[in-house]
Structure formats: structure tokens, C-alpha cells
Amino acid sequence: MWNKALMQTDMGNAAYADAVLGAGDNALISAYLKGNEQALEMLVTRYRDKLVNYINNLVHDRDVAVDLAQEAFIRVYRNADRYQGQYQFSTWLYRIATNLAIDEMRRRERKGRFFFHNVMSLFQKDEKVYPLPDARQCPEKALHQKEKVRVLQVAIDSLPAKYRLPFVLKEIQDLSYQETGQVLSLSLGTVKSRIHRAKMLLREKLVGVL
Amino acid sequence: MNCKAVEKRLTEDVRTAAEASLQQHLAQCRGCRELYRQLLSLGELSGTLKSKVEAPADFAARVLERSVETRPWAYYGKPALAVVVLVVFVGGFLWTYLPPGGAGAAPAATVAEDRQQGLVAESGTVVFEVSESTGPYVDVLLDHPADQGRVLRLPSRIEIRKSALHHDSYLQHVSY
Q1: What is the DSSP code (8-state) at residue B162?
Q2: If we measure between CA atoms, which residue out of A117, A196, A192 comes closest to residue A155?
Q3: Between B49, B55, B61, which is nearest A49 by CB?
Q4: Where would I find the H helices in A80-176?
Q5: Is the model's pTM score more than 0.95?
Q6: Quick check: B42 and A203 CB within 8 A?
Q7: How far apart are CA B115 and CA B170, in angstroms?
Q8: What one-character-per-residue DSSP string does B95-160 give?
Q9: B86 vs chain A: nearest CA distance in angstroms?
Q10: A76: part of which helix (H) or strand (E)?
Q11: pLDDT of B100 above 70
């Protein structure tokens, strides 16, 4: 529906479609605010997979991740006129998505059916480490790649949220340190420090896996 | 460069291992070499989580659909309606049952006194409202010989209509 061919058909202007497809995020937001709804549609197409993947890495439920990602875009749609442009669009989008994911994790915790071990860290200043079973007894060769990924995911989930969120944003979503700080409202130094701590904790938890 | 500084540099960006100063340290330090290897492995493994799931094909269309469903008036419509209904209900209740002066039993009044105040019209419809009433009710002391000593409890706001046919008064409407 929102592909380039349709844009050409609807608008009768291939050059315009190319310009929109190649435009930066801020240019697309500006175009949307001037009445071009397809500009926002292009942003959805541009970020949908990244956002679904990001939220899924936090909530581990694809359907919920899709739903929350859609909600994030709807909030963008509803509040686009408030976007100031001092941050990148992606930063704003990730911030909305992060808040939605945190709300979802808290909601699950309240309902008592959340499977993260450390969701309470959202409410506490928790320095506690939640170790995995000692993997050193498993021969490294016996751990297949899929199993390694699963173990890594469990280890990431066991990190306190204040380390997990920066790690996921920086190392999995490929945001820069600066963008990660903007998403989480943290200083650059704090982000670096927390990611350093996250990696060192993961290193301890993943002995025999890494 | 000491191990702590190397650790900090490598966790910040593992690619800095290519720098000459770090290369020199790594060549001499087994612990930092192991850290470097583990960080490389962690980065590689984390990379597999980058595209673990994808959005469904109809994702964008669904966003558009939901955004139409949740335009401000649709999004806030139900809560706003609920607030309006609540305000009307509570306001009506307070207006009816809590007149200025606070709640409590209404002072007793008699029909005779009310007539003296001219509140009951000789014909047509008037609203009878006891100005001294501080509660939802007013007790009217009946002064007819047949009802001597009886008290009629009425809402503090009532409507009385004078019947032209029978030349008597009757309650037309109770306002609560």
C-alpha cells in the first residue's frame, strides 16, 4: 500500500517518490506536518522492523512487540506537531517505545505473570547479579549457536534494567552512545559506564559460552 | 597503559584494540587478551539478536488503521463522555441534596408561614422553595383540624399548581 509504486501512481510524480524515499527522518516529519501523510508512512516502513525487534528483545512476545511498536507509531502520528527536532526522530521513537515496553513489563509484573527475573530492578536500585547456572561444566563445543543465543538472551534479561536498556539500545539496536543517552535521558558518561558494567556482568555470566 | 584503562577502552569500543598502544599491552597481557576475545564473541553473539523478528507485512496498514481509530476525539471520546456524565450526575446530586448552608435536617415550616411569605400563588404554577432549607427535605406541619399535629415531609423544591376547576392546590411535580 505504501510502496514506491503506489506513491508514483497516487501522486503521479516519480521524482517526488524518490525524494521522499531518500529523505532524512526530520525532512519526512516536516513533510508530514505540512500535510503529506505518506511521509509518515515512509517513516513507519523505515523503522518498523527495528522497533519490533527492539521491543521483542525486552518483552519476548512478538505479538505484544508488534502491538507496542504500532502504538509507538500512533503516538508519533498523534504528537508529530510537538516534535521539536532537537533530537533525531529515531531517538524520539525509541524513547516512546522504551516507555511502552517498560509499562508493559510493569503491567506484567503487577499481574504476576512476568517471566523476567529482574523486573523489580525497574523499581529498585538493584546491583544484584542473577547468575546463570554454571556453564563451565558444559563443553563449549556442545553449545550450538542457537543455544548460545538463548543463553545470551537469558543473561541479558537477568541484567538490572539500568544496565539492560543501554546495552540493548547500543549493542543490539546499534544506536550511538549519544543517542542511547538521549533515549534514556542519561548523560554520555553514565551511558558509557552502564554499558561497561553490563558487558562485564555478561562476561561473568557467560563464562564457557563466550 | 594499565589493565583497567585497557578494559575501559575495549568495553567502550572493541575496535580500539587495533590501536598501537592497546596492541602493545595485549601482546604482553594474557588477561586483557582473554577479555578482548570475550568481548569480540559477545559482540558477535549480540549481533544475532539484531534481526531476530520482523514486523508483519500489514504493519504499516494496521498503524494507519489504528491511527484513524485513535484520532483525538475517538481516543478521548469515551473518557470525556464518562467525565461529562459523572459531572452532571454529581453536580445534580449536590445541587439537589446539598443546598448552600450545608446538609442536615430542614427546619420545620408550616403551611401558614409559607402562605404569609406569599410563596404559594393563587393560580397557575409556581415553584415552592423553602429558602431556609438546609437539607433535601422540609417538614410541613399540617394545620388542618383533621391533620392536627401531623407532619408532611416534602422535598425542599416542589412545584405546586393551582387548579382553576376545583380551586385547590396540588403537587404538580417533585423536582428530585
Answers
A1: E
A2: A117
A3: B55
A4: 89-111, 145-157, 161-167
A5: no
A6: yes
A7: 15
A8: HHH--TT-SSPPPPEEHHHHHHTT-S-SSEEEEEE-TT--SSEEEEE--SGGGTT-EEEEESEEEE
A9: 27
A10: helix A62-79
A11: no
